[in-house]
Amino acid sequence: MKSTRFYILLIMIICCAVAKAQSDRQSIRDGNSRYHAKDYPKAEVHYRKAIEKNPSNPQALYNLGCALMMQQKDSAAIVQYEKAGQLETNPLRKAKVYHNIGVICQNHQMYQEAITAYQESLRNNPKDDETRYNLALCKQRKKENQDQNKDKQNQKKDQNKDQKDNKKKEQQQQQQENQQMSKENAEQLLNAAIQEEKATQQRMKKAMQTPQKRNLEKNW
After folding, report:
1. How many CB atoms lie within 10 A of CB 162?
2. 0.85 cut: is pTM over it?
3. pLDDT digits 0-9 by tens, 89-106
4. Using an 8 Å Cβ cutoff, are 85 and 98 in contact?
5. C-beta separation of 118 from 98 below 8 A
6. N or C end: fewer C-beta atoms under 10 angstroms in the chain?
7. How far apart are the two ends of the chain, measured CA to CA in Å?
8. Which of 26, 35, 42 is nearest to 66 (CA)?
9. Is residue 118 scored above 70 in pLDDT?
């Protein structure tokens, strides 16, 4: 009796698992139907239902990522792709996962992240020429950006150097002007002193040349 009950319980567990698998597969098929009809929001709904029934289904996660990507929900799409990549065991399907991550990062000019994703894709499918081309293109774009950043940094350094040189020239010019003004003031003061001295000598000379009147005493 115990053996019979054990087999019955085992059969029930297997039947439940099969029913669950069929349930999430049906949701995936419904999602695929809406996806091919370009009704991406409804496809997303069906894929999420499949994931609720089986969170470990990499196909449902990958398809959900595709539906989100087509709606330009790129950040959310990458999250689903990364989950799918961790669960997927088939190399070709795994290569597609990381290829799509690379495409999203490339579109956002996140070239280093795209390079990493494309490299992972090629590790799983070395024969994918499209991924290889995208990888080469991202490496080129990254190098161009680095060169541009270096040029900008050099230009900024040159600008800072020019500003420092101009400021130094202005300070030197101001110092020279101050020195010139001090020299002119000293000359003016000296000239004024000389003129005053000449005027004083002329007054003294004139005073000495003028005859003085004598006071006569009265006789008593």
Report:
1. 10
2. no
3. 999 999 999 999 999 999
4. yes
5. yes
6. C
7. 181
8. 35
9. yes
